[in-house]
Every structure is written in structure tokens, then in C-alpha cells.
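Our consortium's second objective concerns turning raw sequence data into structural hypotheses that experimental partners can test. To show how far this objective has progressed, the report includes one record in full. It was chosen at random from the queue rather than selected for favorable results. The single chain below, 512 residues long, was entered without modification.
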Amino acid sequence: MEQLQLLLEGFGAALTPANLLFVFIGAVLGTAVGVLPGLGSSMAVALLLPITFSLDPTAAFIMFAGVYFGGLFGDSTAGILLNTPGQSSAIASTFEGHRMAKSGRAAAALATAAIGAFIGGLISTTIVVFFSPYLVRLATMFGPAEYFALAVFAFIAVSSVVSESVVRGLASLGIGVSLAFVGIDGPSGTSRFTFDVPQLFDGINIVVITIGLLALGEVFHVASRIHRDPESLKVSSEGIARLSRKDFRAALPAWLRGAAFGAPFGLIPAGGAEVPTFLAYGTEKRLATMRGDKEFGTVGSIRGLAAPEAAGNATAGTAMGTMLALGLPVSATAAIMLAAFQQYGLQPGPLLFERSGDLVWTLLASLFIGLVVLLVINLLAAPAWARLLRVPQHYLYAGITVIAMFGAYAISASLVDLIILIVLGFLGLLMRRYAIPVAPLLIGVILGPLAETELRRALAVADGDAAVLVGSPLTIGIYAVLAIAVLFTIVQHFRHSQSTKKQQGPALTEAV
């Protein structure tokens, strides 16, 4: 097979001492920047971009291979340990990962995330190497109506699956979409929900929302219960950077399911890795309910961490393929990589493989090498990261607050962002207090602008005819799958409520 021969030639160019050193340096730097809350993988690539300008193109992009996946590995580390994900694509991993850390399994959670990221990246990069022509053809089938259908699918699926109550899930989604509407409306130029505050004209940054709801919300929640529930603040770590055979067997199907969710989403600009990670998380939660898994949502489920972590890196792998083959960046990190190519006078697209084939295949080979290097680094460093949880709780949460404030302020150096951060922190506290899920809110913020833009485009092309939204087999298929999923979820919720009533009935009778 021609692709295999070209890939082997790429390995021959990448497996030199100098190039391996560049991969290692990129992996370490990317992970270090990705761990910092408020920065994340895209910022890692952006900050390290100037460093590579003095290198030749091959060495530069080999280093970027390490930075690219290193930032993604680092994104979930702070989320697992401090409930502050480095980037929105790591939010879904934070839910069960942080619960595992709080229950004393921090190093196991980090190992699960590292192996999941490795498996997701390995599968997606392999798909790029051997099936990129077919994946590109699939990506071209999506138009505005298909993107809108995909956004609606993510809205309803996450709201109905992640939440125990569909009503609470939809309420959370409504809050998220409302936050997404803040700012200047692009087509009309009208300001919406800005209250004439200039700092709000560009909208509320997703990093501010994420840090406010998750990090500061967690700080306020812990502070509000410090006298009522002091035992819940005792966080420990066993410091073992490996998984038992039982845990590995439990996580393996979830890793594969997560990779299956993530790989196709790297081909289309539908919210980056957030959609597949939330869908993978929701699927694992539904399966946990069917199995009667009591760890999910309490002490932390290894499957609930494994699936979204694999999905996120699988999306990143195929996103790299889409950027190389089409010149289409479907994520912020890929967009910065595109700028790096252009800096060297290279234009990603169909002709890139013909004109600069040696560089492309060396880059793809270095992605495989970078994944192996990152897996080793993260497994070895997991005990060191986990020791963060041995810090006394009052110091730890004070540190989280300071990091959250600095991360939010670093975005645009605006005091308005800090005020919004505090308000969102109290909102996160109220949502925890009344069991309103955070995931639908976040997916509403992320996909709200996409859904609105694609809806307008679809209606503009069809002169206002709403039938265009269901005018293709692909949109009909998406809505059909959505209807089946919602119906299944309603039935599951009904059965669960009936069984709960039956269990409460005898208990009330005995009490009387």
C-alpha cells in the first residue's frame, strides 16, 4: 500500500536523534502549558510558535507534533486535579475525573486519561493515514442545514442524557444559549444583552465561563459546606501511575467507544472536540444506569473519564488530517497550526501532499512518535501531579481561586471578566445546590453561535423556507436518530421513576 510505504519513509526521517529531541521538547512544553488553567492546548501552540521560526520546516513541525498532542494531554490534568480544565474540550473529562481524584484515585485517573488520549490519538492518526480521501469526501457532504441538525442533536442529546431530569437539563441549556447571545450580532451589527458595556461587545469568553462555573463554583460549594461536610474535603492520592487489570478491562470498551465518537467530528467545524466528548460522556452515563453502576456521579467512574478523553484526542487527530488535506482548520489549535504552515510558505490542501510530501509524511510519523513519548511522560509524571492533592485544603482551594482569577484576567486584562467570573461562580454554586447539570449549559455556550449562524445561512439560501432544514437524507437521518434517542431516554426516566416509587412505597408503609 502506497500510504504505508510513505509513512515508513516519514518514520525514517523522524527517527533521528535531533528530531526525537524536538518531539520530546515539544511534548514537555506543550503539556506544561496545557496544564495551566485558562491557557490550554491552543494557547500552548500559539505561545510556542515563535520558538520554531529559527528551525527548518521539518524540525519545526516535528516539534509542533509534540506541542499539539502535549497540550491536549495537559488540558485534562488540571481538570482532574483542580476541577479547572485547561480547555473546553476537557470539560467532560473533568466530571468523573475530579470525582476520582477526590475519592483518592488521582493517579489512576491521570493514567486513565493518558492512556485514553493515547488510544484516541493513535486510532484517529491511523485513520488519517489510510482513509483521509474518504473522510474528506464525507466532510464535504455537510452544509448549513446539516450543521444546524448536528447542533440540535448535541443540544437535546446532552440535555436529556446527562441530567437526571430532562426539565433541569433543558433549563441549563437555555441558560447556556442565553450566555452565548451576549455580544454583537454579526449579520445585523446589533448589540445583544451587553447593557452598553463595551467589554461585552465581543461576548463572554468560554474560558471565563468554564473557569467560573467549574473552578470558582467548586470553591464556593466547598466553602458553603465546610462545617456541614468536612469529610468531603479530605482528598488523597495513592500515587500509583498504573491501572489494575480490572480497571483496564473496564476502561478499554469506553476508550474505543470514545474514539468512535471523536474521529468523525474532526472532519467538520461543529464545535471542535466538545460535542463528541459530551456525547461520549452521556453514552457512558446511560450505560452505567443500565448496568446499575453506583460509581458514576458519586466516587467517579473510570468509564466516564475514559470515553471523553479518547473522544477528544480522536477529534484532534482527524482535525489534523482535515487541516492537511483540505486546508480547513476545524479547531482553534488547528487554525494556529495552519498559520504555522503559512509562515513557512506552505499552503495546506490537496496539493500539499504532492508538493511537500516528505514534510507531510514526516509530520504524520512524528504524531505517532509524539503520542508514545507523551504516554510515557504522563504515566511517569502522574504521581507527581497527584501530589498536588496532598496540599492542605485551605491552601489548595485558595490556590485554585488565584489561578482562576489570573486565567480569566489574562484573556483580555479586563476587570469586567473578573466580575463575570465571580457571578458565574455563584451561578455554579446554585446549580450544584439544586442539582442542575452544568454540561448542557456549557454545550449551549459552545454550540449556540454555530447553531444560530448555520440556521440563518440555511434559511437565507432557501429564501426563508424552513423545509430546507429537513431537506436532505443526512438531516433526516440525524433527526431520526435524535427522536429515537429522546424516546429511549424518556422510557428510561419513566422506568427509573416507577422503580423509585415502588421502593419508597414499602419503606413508607414500614415507617407508618
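The partners drew two points from this record. The radius of gyration is 23 Å. Residues 444 and 473 are 26 Å apart (CA to CA). Both points have been shared with the crystallography group to help prioritize constructs.
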